[in-house]
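Let's study a protein:

===
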Amino acid sequence: MLDRDIRRDLRSVPAPLAETIARHLVATALLVDTDPVQALAHARAAAARLPRMAAVREAVGVAAYHAGEFASALLELRAARRIDGSSHNLPLMADAERGLGRPERAIDYLSDPGVAALDAAGRAELLIVVSGARRDMGQPEAAAVLLRDEVTARTEPKPWTPRLWYAYAEALLAAGRTMEALRWFTATAGIDEDTTDAAERVYELTIDDETDDETEIDNEDGGAEDDGPESDRLEDELLGDERLEDDGPAAGTHDGAAVDEPDPDGLIASGTGAAVDAVADDAALADADADADGAGDADAEAEAADHGDTGGASDAGAAVDVTVDGEPAAPVEQPAPAEPAAAVEPIEVGFSAAEDTSAVPAAEVTADTPPIPEIIFSDAPGGADQAGAHRTSED
């Protein structure tokens, strides 16, 4: 179980002690991969009994490295190198620097003078560690370049080849060269005997590629489909605008502002009130003229009889006989009255204008009713002369 060099070194110590140290070293080697903490305990027990032996200090350093105690590992490995001057632990020392968060120091180990004394396996391990340090520093392309010559060398696969190819594939993946990384992971899985998880990485990358393809297809197909609530809101707004264009402005509005519709009741009430006021004014004017004139002559009575029902002015073109000092004067043509303004037709409701105006009794024309004199407007053509002639007749 022990290396020949270790057994040679143990011959210089008493047999009981050498046997105890050997047992602790064997236990450390057996447990380092499965139970590194227990392996470290055995290594430290051996170092407590024989601290000046390089193999014992190296065992402590390796067990501490696997247990994650990188500072202790670096300390013990440096001590072992000082004792025997060997550089075969340079890859572990560089990786311990990475574990302590100092990748730049790990890169410095590549220029250590002891690198030239490393065998092919040791050099490959050191390149893998330094490549990982480059990735830690955010330099994946440099990490890939560092391993390219080793992985592309046309040689037979060695025991360390799977780990070298795996590290190269990791560098390519970190550099964004996914397809190349997938190819190297696949090659690693072809020669690996459970040293790495290359087969799992191939599966993960393949599933990721299929998922990305399905996502792209879904995005292309979903471009013409409903985009969710936002699309529904935009569609409703567009439909609302179309309805406004088709229907036009709503009744009772003009340019977006509300327009007051006329009140039918107000129109009828105002029209009825105007009619009542007109009838009352005519009746009052008739009473005033009757008091001023007294009893009219026979001709005026006859003329009033002709116009009594209408209560208004005589027909257009009718002549008025006016006498001056008992002599008849020339008949004067009565001017045609102005056409009345068009009446506003009220909106029909539950009552009529006749019912509203029935409250004001119409003036009845009898034989005793004094005649209603005609009113001559002075602003009508010839109105001034007619008015004077009329006054003369009355006098």
